[in-house]
Amino acid sequence: MANSLLLAVNITLMYSAPLILAALGGVITERAGVINIGIEGMMTFGAFAGAAGAFYTGNPWAGFLFAGAAGAFLALFHAVASVSFLGNQTISGVAINFVGGGLSLFLSRLLFDGATTTMPVPHKLPKTLSLFFGEVSDPVLQNLNVDVTVPVALILALIVWYALYRTRAGLRLRAVGEHPAAADTLGVNVYLIRYAAVILSGLFAGFGGAAQSIAVVSQFSPTVISGHGFIALAAVIFGGWTPQGAVGACLTFGFAQALVVLLGGGVLPIPSQLLAMLPYVLTILVLILFVGRSSAPKANGIPYQKGVR
C-alpha cells in the first residue's frame, strides 16, 4: 500500500514538473500585464530544441538550456507584437502556437532525415537520487527517485515567489501589471519590464517543454506537449496569478495524469481513451468553476502606450 502511494506521488510530481515550469512563466508575464496564450507553442518548440540539443551534444543539460533559449526566442516575437506594436495579445499568442508547432516539425524534418520525431536522446535528465548515488535498485527508493526537474521546478517556484513579493524588481513588475501609467510616472520603464517578463515566460515555457521531452520521455514527437501549455495557463488562473497557487494547481493536474497512468492498466473497466481525457476535462471544470472568482491583474491584456490613459 505504501509503495503504491509512493508510486502515485512519484508519477504526480513527474507530470507536474513541466506544468509548474510553464505556469511560472505565465504568472510572471501576466503579473506584468501581458497575456501569453503562446505558452503551448513555446513549450513545443522548447521540447524540440531540448531533445535535438540533447541528442546532438549527448548532454541533457545542454538540451535543457537550448530549450529555454528556444522558448525565449519565440517569446521575443510575442513581446515585439504585444508591447512595441500594441497588437492584440491573444491573437499574437495564438500565432505563436502555430509558429512553435510548425517550426518544430520543419526543423525536425530537416535535422532527422524527414522524420517529425527526433531520435531518442542518449541520456535523459537524471533522477534526483541517481544524480548523487548512482543506480538505485531498491523498489521503495525507486519510487522516491523523482526526476531532477521536480526539485528544479520547486526551487524556481520559490525564487519566483521571492522575486515577486520580496524585491523591488518584483514590486515594479506587479505595479506595471496593475497601473502601468502610474508606474510610468514614478520612473518605471513599463516597456522594459514587460519585455523582460514575456521573455522570461518563454524561457520557463521552454524549460517546461524540455522537462517533458528529455525527462518524462526521451524524444520529441508532435504530440509530446499536446495541450500542456493550455493546462499551465489554466493553472495560472486557478492559482490566482500567484506562484504558490500555480504550483498547487499544477500538482492537481499532475495527479489527474497519474490517475490516468495508474488506472490505465485495467484496474477499472474504463476505456483508455476516456481515461486519457481526464486531465483535459479537469482543466475545463476548473476554468468553469474558478475563472469567475479569480481576480487578474487590472492591466492584464491591455497594451500600454506612453502618454495615453
What does this structure look like?
The protein has 309 residues and is mostly helical. Helix content is 72%, strand content 0%. The protein has helices spanning 2-31, 39-57, 60-84, 89-111, 128-133, 139-144, 149-166, 168-178, 180-185, 190-216, 228-238, 243-263, 272-276, 278-290. Helix 2 (39-57) packs across helix 10 (190-216), helix 7 packs across helix 8 (168-178) and helix 11 (228-238) crosses helix 12. The protein is globular, with a radius of gyration of 19 Å.
Indicate the topology:
Layout (H helix, E strand, L loop, with lengths): L1 H30 L7 H19 L2 H25 L4 H23 L16 H6 L5 H6 L4 H18 L1 H11 L1 H6 L4 H27 L11 H11 L4 H21 L8 H5 L1 H13 L19
Principal-axes geometry comes out as globular
Number of strands: 0
pLDDT averaged over residues: 91
Radius of gyration: 19 Å
Largest sheet: none
Low-confidence stretches: none
Strand-residue proportion:
under 5%
Structural class: mainly alpha
**SSE order, one letter for each helix or strand:** HHHHHHHHHHHHHH
Share of residues in helices: over 70%
What assembly state would you assign to the polypeptide chains in this entry?
single chain
What distance lies between the first and last C-alpha atoms, to the nearest angstrom? 60 Å
Number of helices: 14
Using brief descriptors, characterize the structure shown.
mainly alpha, 309 residues, 72% helix, single chain
